[in-house]
Amino acid sequence: MSRNQRVGLLVAAVVVLVVAFVIAKSGGGSDKTSTTSNVVQTVEIKNAKPVGGIKVLKFNKGGTIRFKVHSDVADEIHFHGYDKHQDVKAGGTVAFDVPATIDGKFVVELEGRKEQIASVEVEP
Q1: Which of 20, 52, 62, 74 is deepest in the core (most CB within 10 A)?
Q2: Which one, of 87, 94, 111, lies nearest residue 44 by Cα?
Q3: Rg for the chain (alpha carbons), in Å?
Q4: What is the DSSP letter of 39?
Q5: Which DSSP string do the residues of 22-38 spell out, in sequence order?
Q6: Which of 94, 64, 55 is CA-nearest to residue 82?
């Protein structure tokens, strides 16, 4: 093998290693941190508004949508699209655990106040 062939092989090996590192670092192409079935995100409600603004919750279709809402006001939490409702007491917490069977973007709101608190995004 000539010197140029060895250098070419070395360069190709370095490129392969760099590409493998980039793919591994990015999680194999998925940038969704909330798709892990063990992760339960919390939407915090203070003064009938979502703390930090409307929270975006991302999930993969075929997985499970898991999130909690902790609220300082009593209201009905309505998860549109999946049409799930739960009453939350002032100072209370409710949890949603739903199979992700429908892809799209869905509103979660304080139903009585018509206040959007989260957006659930389910991607194929």
Answers
A1: 74
A2: 94
A3: 22
A4: -
A5: HHHHTTTT---SS--TT
A6: 64
Among the listed residues 122, 118, 120, 119, the one whose alpha carbon sits nearest the alpha carbon of residue 102: 122
Supply 99's token pair.
Answer: 């199979």
What is the rounded distance in angstroms from the CA atom of residue 65 to the CA atom of residue 120? Answer: 8
Buried b / exposed e across 83-106, counting CB within 10 Å, b at 16+?
A: ebeeebeeeeebebebebeeeeeb
Q: Give the SS3 label for residue 8.
A: helix
Coil, helix or strand at residue 14: helix
Please name the residue ranges forming H helices in 1-124. Answer: 3-25
| pLDDT level of residue 94 (50, 70, 90 thresholds) | very high
Burial class (CB in 10 A: 0-12, 13-18, 19+), 45: buried
Instruction: Give the bridge partners for 60, in sequence order.
Output: 123
Q: Which amino acid is at 76?
A: E
